[in-house]
Amino acid sequence: xxxxxxxxxxxxxxxxxxxxxxxxxxxxxxxxxxxxxxxxxxxxxxxxxxxxxxxxxxxxxxxxxxxxxxxxxxxxxxxxxxxxxxxxxxxxxxxxxxxxxxxxxxxxxxxxxxxxxxxxxxxxxxxxxxxxxxxxxxxxxxxxxxxxxxxxxxxxxxxxxxxxxxxxxxxxxxxxxxxxxxxxxxxxxxxxxxxxxxxxxxxxxxxxxxxxxxxxxxxxxxxxxxxxxxxxxxxxxxxxxxxxxxxxxxxxxxxxxxxxxxxxxxxxxxxxxxxxxxxxxxxxxx
Length: 286
Known about the structure:
The radius of gyration is 20 Å and the shape is globular. The model is unreliable at 1-11 and 212-217 (pLDDT under 50). The strands form 2 sheets. A 4-stranded antiparallel sheet has the order 2-3-1-8. It is 47% helix and 15% strand. It has 286 residues and is α+β, with helices and mostly antiparallel strands.
């Protein structure tokens, strides 16, 4: 996964076309096996969230060139599907959203520490490593020593960036003299992380006020709503390392925001699926 294969923490809630594209394929293609979607369908759906046709076409081409999408022609139409590389990215994001969640109230007291030393000329690889570590839950304890709560497997990250000779990984527990609360405050920007959750909750709670939470949904455009919902949630959790709940403020907003996300997601899931079946022009990958 390259540094901008997932949602960039600097994007803000209005993400780049590639981030929205990944969310689209994660919503409607990831669990459908070898499904491909026509460019016209992608243009239609992303147009519902404000992405123009030219931006969609250039993003599709760029993602093909970067090995994230496959491409095949059927008659006069072009269809796009996921590559194995893109599937790994989306499966990781899926697990982050639906399996691990935003709150860690079962931390076992362990930490993963990763030390690295890269030549000054490797600025791009250093940036990629830091971005990947941030997504994996790490924060900079010191400039070349990063730390994450729990046991985090970074084997794939290190190997994909070809940094095995420059990285050392350890599992550890903090000694009694270490003030874990203070260490967390020094390593992660808790105010910024909390603000993302608070902002997300404020934006999406009104979607739950219109009718009882039946899951049927009344949104005129559930496919567009769900695309915005998932992409904004991924942006929200992008820099959250899922710190131990017992070392966070008692009013930490991740839990309420996650509840809002999951309620809106449940409400839009079936309507979005129905709309996708009616709207999307698909083909099986060859």
